[in-house]
Specification:
Blueprint (H helix, E strand, L loop, with lengths): L3 H44 L4 H31 L2
Helix pairs in contact: 1-2
């Protein structure tokens, strides 16, 4: 059995996880897209295509992932500050 403070901590973490779940799913999808793009880039490079096009896509995906992670951190801080 958990004491009061441990139960409160678990409750807070569960509430924060519910609020950040959509962002977590977007981050997971972006990471999957980046992995796929890396595989695609290796294939294109092996075929002799220029790296410029897929490098641009990878750069945009990395920037988007960075923004999503920053947003998730801010959302988490706001949720923790709001919860008792």
């Amino acid at each position: 059995m958990l004491d009061g403070s441990a139960a409160d901590t678990l409750r807070r973490e569960a509430a924060v996880a519910r609020e950040t779940a959509p962002v977590d799913r977007r981050i997971a999808r972006l990471r999957q897209d980046i992995r796929w793009q890396l595989h695609y880039a290796k294939t294109q490079k092996a075929r002799g295509y220029p790296a410029r096009d897929y490098a641009r896509v990878l750069r945009l995906l990395r920037q988007t992932l960075s923004v999503e992670r920053t947003y998730r951190a801010a959302l988490r801080r706001a949720a923790l500050a709001r919860l008792p």
